[in-house]
Structure formats: C-alpha cells, structure tokens
Amino acid sequence: xxxxxxxxxxxxxxxxxxxxxxxxxxxKAMETIKNIPTPFKIQEEIAExxxxxxxxxxxNQDKNKVAVIQGAQYPQLRIKxxxxxxxxxxxxxxxxxxxxxxxxxxxxxxxxxxxxENINPNTTLYFPxxxxxxxxxxxxxGIDIFDTSRAIYEAKYNxxxxxxxxxxxxxxxxxxxxxxxxxxxIEFTIKEIRENMKNKTLRNLTEQKAAxxxxxxxxxxxxxxxxxxxLLKYTQLY
Length: 238
Hints:
The chain is an alpha/beta fold. The protein is built from ten helices and ten strands. It has a single domain (3-234), classed as Queuine tRNA-ribosyltransferase-like (TIM Barrel, Alpha-Beta Barrel), CATH 3.20.20.105. It has helices at 44-58, 75-87, 98-102, 105-117, 135-140, 149-156, 178-198, 202-210, 214-226, 228-234; strands spanning 3-8, 11-16, 19-21, 23-25, 67-69, 92-95, 124-126, 145-147, 159-161, 166-168. The longest helix is centred in the last third of the chain and has 21 residues, at 178-198. The model has no long low-confidence stretch (mean pLDDT 94).
C-alpha cells in the first residue's frame, strides 16, 4: 500500500515497500498473480467474462503480489476489475495491455484516470513497459511504479532509448552497451520526475516533453480537454 507524502497535481510522492515513489523496479522482481490475459481489441462480452475469471483466480492467491487490471479497452470493466481486486485485499495493481494503451492516447487517459478515481487513493498503480518519453505524464496522472522491461526490450532490438526519442542502434552509434544505457536513461527520468514533483514543477516537465513529440502533445491536449476537473482537484491554487 502506498503512503502518500505529497501531491504535485494528481501525481503522488510517497513510499511503497520502502521505496520512494514514483519508483523504478526490475520487472523480473515483480511477482504478478495468475490472471486471464485479454487482448485489447475484443468484444465487450468476452472481455467481461475474462474479468470475472481473473477475479475468481485472484481469490486464493498471495495478496502481497501484484494483481492485474484486465478489461481490454473498456474503462468500466477496468474499474470493476480493480475494485474487486481491492476487495480481495490486493494493494498493488498493474495495468494490462500497456503497449496498446501507449498507442491509444484517449483510451490510456480514460482507463488510467477513471480507474484512479474509483479506487482507494492508497492503492499503488503499476504501468509496465513504459517508454522514457511517456513516463513523466504517466506519473503526472497518477502512476506510481514503472519498470525496466521497455529498456531491455529496446536493447534486444538494437534501439537506444533517451528522454526524447528511440534511436535505431544501427544508424546511431551512441553507446557500446544499449541495455545498460537504456536503464540509465529511465533511471534518470524517474529521478527527474521526483525532483520536479518536490519542486511542484512536474507539469512544466510534461509540457516540455510534449513540445518535442507530436504523440505526447496529443496526449497532453486530450488530458486538458477531457480531464480538467481531475487536474484541478489536485492542483494547488496560488
């Protein structure tokens, strides 16, 4: 369970398992419970059935592990799954289909924010496989845990991650150890996020990132257009 120390907008500075949040973890160290993997684009009736099966599977598993929020592209199913997992005693929840969510900005915002608003504020939210570019805005809207999976994946395919781009290693000879450098980049990104949160400047950082990336700019505009009340709820007025 997350102990919240401070907010910067909807983002949360806190502690989870003796780690400061937002935090970066080794994805191999995160133990998730058994669940029913669900495609992102699927009929709602099938997705609902898979949610029910995921909840049933979760009943007799270790509550200290990470439970997975299934529900495909449907925010109402994600909310239902998260709420039922909370009732069973899980306090750390991971989003499924994060690769697809990063390619669908409106769905990403709807699913994360609506889930965040409908669960216990001390429940910790985990977003696997995030790129360095999108990590600041994910933290801004309420994600607490990130992992190294994307850094390792990009290195495997000879790509270098930076805070603003992903470079094909064959064309850009920028480092001799892609995996090590990718992990360093995302570690720095998490530290940068935390320091901006402490200084109440995380919104400035997310706007800077958006100015360098059309996809992030779209995400930012949709956030401001569709979730102004959510942002204002946590934003200090001067």
